[in-house]
Amino acid sequence: MKRTLDNTSDKPSEALSSGRIQAKRPKSSQACSSCRKHKTRCELIDNPSPADAHSGAGYRCHRCKVLNISCSFESSEFAPQLMARATPSPPPYLRYPHPTSTTGTEPPRIGPQNNPLSLAHRDAHAMLAPATPRLNSAAIKHGFIPREGSVTTPHTPQTPLGNVDAHIQQKEDYIKLEDLFPLPPNAPWGFVKVPGGFDWTATPMLAMQNITTSRAHYTHGEGEGMELHASLANILGPDNIKNLLHFESRYSPWINLQPFSAPNPSMLLTLAHCLVASRHLDPATRSAVVPPLQKLTEDAILRHVFSAIPSTQAIQAVMVLSLWCPIGGGEGGQGQGQGQGRGEVEVRDGRLLVASAVSMAMNLRLSQAIEYVAGLREEIRKEEVREEDVEGDIGDGVEKARLWLSLMNAEWLLCVGTGRSPLSQRTSLDHAAIEWSSHATIGACRDMRLALVGQLVEVTEAALRLHFEGKADFGRFYKEVNDVCTKFDNLLRLISPLPVVAEHEVFYFHFLVIYHNVCRLLVMHHCLRETRRVYADNSGQLWHTLAEHGGINLAAQWGQEALLLAEGTLSAILSIPAARAPPHSPAHSPHSHHSHSPHAHASHAHAPDPAALLNTAPDQIFAMLCFAASFLVMCKLAIHQNHGADLPGSSDLLLARAVELLVRSACAPDHAPAKCAQLIRGLIASFEARVRKRAHGAGVCGAEGGQGGQCNTSAVRTSVGRELRAEAAAGSASG
């Protein structure tokens, strides 16, 4: 016989079997989730208190109410008649979770179209089953759900008392996921703090996979934070931790995120910051603390990398570790930074780390944040929604868009010129994702650099994809390269004045010029290699003399530009105010007048030594400088090998001062600038050895009767000039 919940039954003996009126629950839900888990008795005794009903806490069993914990009956489909008289409140899964609340992980339900609850809340929650009115197309398209406060529909439907029976019958049509499966903590179908939230019904197979594989979900609770904090304090000590946590002023400008974008950083992000900033410790302390600190950080990172729902701070931590390799762990060992010391840290591939960060960001759908924000702005423009209604959603989406843009720039920085294609893909909407026309504040300056670096990346990536198969296609290739150069020129016009007119973080605006020069140098190097691949043959003629179009030797033209860019890169880093070592006397050397570049006027009288700021640069920045210096040395080598002459100009002095700056910027022997300086010194030593060998009669100049085997370099400079420079750059591309 079917049981009824009607307490006005004509057979009171059936309802009074226990001596009091008590609502009977369906057999499919005999206890709440917590009581089932702990195998304890679950009782429904009292009505929800007025405070609970007003706050939306809902109905709880006696045990959960006494323990003051969440109860699955708060959002359960079981609804006794005594509960129907209370003021209805929205289920917890429709409310955005409080940071300390656990009810926000309650799953959404699939209900019929005519259910009044789903009709009341469908604008606030993306349901798959009902065809709901659209709040905004961007949220529907990307699965984003507006933040709390952006929906103007009432929180709760007013159910008339006369329709209680119909209301209960409609609620019985719901199927709640926890009635079928136990809910693990932080289940992937709960809300995630991304723009608008996350709906498990949008990825139902992900939910099923996690259930069937019994995947453990790592929780980032207070226990983990306390454990990591204790381990960190044990390794570094409180004083060192406090000194190292100046990451915002020393490192954040390189990744161009907003100041204090993480005002309360997680312990994972704190670990990453301390590991990177540990390079500023004294050598003895650094050698002792870096290896255990690196292991602690990596263990914590691994638990987040493989999480189904990583946090944005975990993504930022992985990005930081991909850009800055830990240094200084081997001074106390025998290897002295060569990998043989007892305390030497193990180097990780930054490209793999940043690929992990990109994959984590895609799991959170940060890659769709830009399109989401663009959709909201388009609806505001069309007056489909009011700006004040979606202001919070736009702000949250823009923050996610900034993180995604910074992550794309970091991935490009690590992948460009390596043969590895980035996982992230740029779109035409990236330019308008953030406002970058002002540089009045630190945040605006970072947005401007973030946008300009992204545009340089976009042009460079497009240029490096250009190819041509045969000589007949050379004209088309030349036109495409010209279009790329025009885009670079337009960006350079925007970038060049910024070191002078910017009001904040001027030092980092100088690097936009360096980024431009290196990007363009990579493109010219790519063009020379493509030309050599097609025109090099067995005819005996030099390939760079054959690559002509419209009567112009393009190999010579591109080679000349590449050489100018290589020298310009080193000049740019040395022209930053106070980049050169302080003179020993107040009087300047006669050769120091070139340091008064236009960029220097933006500096203050007591500007810090850029070497102290340069030592915080990402490792790949030094690789860029090293590439420019190596290209310059190869040009010198090609000129000397083909003509027995030196490259005209100030290349020797540029290289020497660049090496000096890199050495001063190094925090330890295994720091990237120290390694780059060592490589450049080795290239210069190899070149000078060849010059000496040729000067002693082994080369062409000695055979032609130069004085004592010396080449008449001044005569060569006068006779060749531009041709020598272009041929040198083309020859360096051949190598």
From TrEMBL:
It is found in: Nucleus. Keywords: DNA-binding, Metal-binding, Nucleus, Transcription, Transcription regulation, Zinc. Gene3D superfamilies: Zn(2)-C6 fungal-type DNA-binding domain. It comes from the Eukaryota. Residues 1-32, 580-606 are annotated as: Disordered. The keyword Cytoplasm does not apply. Residues 590-604 have a biased composition (Basic residues). Residues 31-73 form the Zn(2)-C6 fungal-type domain. GO terms for molecular function: DNA-binding transcription factor activity, RNA polymerase II-specific; transcription cis-regulatory region binding; zinc ion binding. Residues 580-589 have a biased composition (Low complexity). Residues 1-13 have a biased composition (Basic and acidic residues). Coiled coil: none annotated. GO terms for cellular component: nucleus. This is Zn(2)-C6 fungal-type domain-containing protein. It comes from Athelia psychrophila.
